[in-house]
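Because showing beats explaining, we think one record worth quoting, sequence and backbone structure tokens together, and here it is:
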Amino acid sequence: MMISYPGLSKLKTKQVVYQNALLARDSGTLEQLKELSSKRKGVEESINENGFVTEAIAREMSGGLTSRCERDIQKLENYLPLLENLVHHVDLVGNNRHMTCWISDLKIRWSSGLTSSSIFHLNGPKFYQINDLHFEIGMSLFLYGTMLREWALEVLSTNLVQSATLFRKASGVYHYLSHEVLPPLQSALPPERPPEASSCVCSVMSLICLADAQAVTVRKAEENVNTGGLLAKLHYGVKEFLVEAIIVLQSATGECKDISSRLLDFLSCCKTLHELKSYKYLAEGLRNDGKIGIAVGVLRQALANVKNMPKEESWRLVSKGVIDDLTGLLRKYEHENDFVWHEKPPNNDELPLPQAVKVVSAIPYQQQKWERTLVFNM
């Protein structure tokens, strides 16, 4: 999209050492628990930014990956299958009192990048401790989706096709979280929980990534000098994704009391920007068809619909640029109409509206699980 929302990937976590809490019956299980802890430590050090590995060594360890986003994704892809396998075997045990006690000893703690306090917390990030391995899967997958989105933004300037694909993959991860992982967990979660553990918030993130993917598609269409009519429909499709996300987010406030209002401001700003761009291309198409009076009416209506400017300065500057662009185009068309065509713009209820076209969909997330036998001493 035309503005960005930094900070989503600023999750933090506390150390988890699986072999210290879960009692293995055999050496094979113990080794697998140690490997699981090792893979998680790699994730911990990366997101907590407390590792001591140089850039050159990190690149060599990852097989030559130069992007930090790619390296973090690789670490998560190495960790998640082992974690899924552990959860599978723990679930087979059921509500065994020893296992419940051991899981509690893991002290699974994550911070949030979406709470209103996540930016201004004076004593460092606030950690939420929820003693459930499904919570660990949920937060790890949320981080995975976020890193896919970060990588998509990273390659946006060089590879539009790859960027759109990564956004669609991220959308699939969030959709999987929202519909498969988190719903069974909701009743077990305490009232105080990170927004990232909410099904509604993950649905919002899935829709944001679809809007991102379609916005990349629009950019590619603009580069190919497509007709204004198609561009108007594509931009309006982005707007429709964002409207849906706003509706879901507003319903999520009951689950997440501390979710930052900045996210809603971001969505509202993006919606307005793509709506304005849609009206711009619609007006240009109408003017090219000789309907300049209607084009003037469309631009006037679009600018009249702008009610509030975003609070964040960088977003405000982008918004002002788009509004100034439409204002200049309106003046040009009004001047041309006054001196040449003399058409009367129709009433607002007679003006055409852009039609939304959605051309992207999520790439479904495929659960990864390494089939390894784990035996615990209970």
Notes: The mean pLDDT is 92. The chain is about 60% helix and 0% strand.
